[in-house]
Amino acid sequence: MTLLMRATDLIGMPVVTIDGGEDVAEVKDVVFDPDRNEVMAFTLNKRGRFHGPLKQILPWPAVHAIGRDAVMIESAGSLADRDDLSGDLREPPANRDVIGDAVVTDAGVALARVADIVVEVGDEQAAVVGYALDNGKFVPIPQQLAVSGETLVVPATVERFLVDDLAGFAAAVESFRADLAGGEQ
């Protein structure tokens, strides 16, 4: 089963253990790899009155499931200490934040700015499949042609697949992928 969610819907979601039902953290932010469009991890906040950033993060492989109301993990031991990690998980690059970036087609048409990312959550991975734009549209994305830290370049054909709501977005993503696959033959 897959589920489409805005990244902002994940922020603040409780992280709950399966082994004891303990609410161990809440999602602070989504860390994703824009080159592969995959969610890599979640940064975390403490829960409760004295909440604030945790040094630990939740790597994607440690996620058991994501539902509409919680992120499920096996146990509190699923959280990883940032100091024990390497590379982008230890310190995500600053240019990874695409919120506010302009989305421009490879034909030079400015579509709008990114207001949110849309994540497709499945059993094995969470993939970034599109963006919610600040003009109210949703745009499906392939692997970006270019990500500069200020502008995301997408194929011009994406304009035919813009939709106004998240409910219709799954079909737009599927149609866009089929269109791209047909063009590669």
Regions with little confidence, pLDDT below 50 for 5+ residues: none
Helix content: 10-25%
Specify the CATH homologous superfamily of the largest domain: PRC-barrel domain
Which CATH C-level class of the largest domain is it?
Answer: Mainly Beta
Major sheet summary line: 7 strands, mixed
Number of helices: 3
CATH architecture type of the largest domain: Roll
What is the domain total for the residues? 2
Indicate the radius of gyration in whole angstroms: 17 Å
β-strand amount: 35-45%
- Span between N and C termini? 29 Å
- The string of secondary-structure elements, in order, is EHEEEEEEEHEEEEEEH
CATH topology of the largest domain: SH3 type barrels
Morphology: elongated
* Strand elements, count: 14
Structural class by helix and strand composition: mainly beta
Q: What is the averaged pLDDT score?
A: 86
Walk me through this protein's architecture.
The protein is mainly β. The chain folds into two domains: 3-92, PRC-barrel domain (SH3 type barrels, Roll); 96-183, no CATH class. 12% of the residues lie in helices and 41% in strands. The strands form two sheets. Strands 1, 9, 10, 11, 12, 13 and 14 form a seven-stranded mixed sheet that branches. Strands 6-7-2-3-4-5-8 form a seven-stranded mixed sheet. β6 (63-66) and β7 (71-73) form a beta hairpin. The longest helix is centred in the last third of the chain and has 15 residues, at 169-183. The protein is elongated, with a radius of gyration of 17 Å.
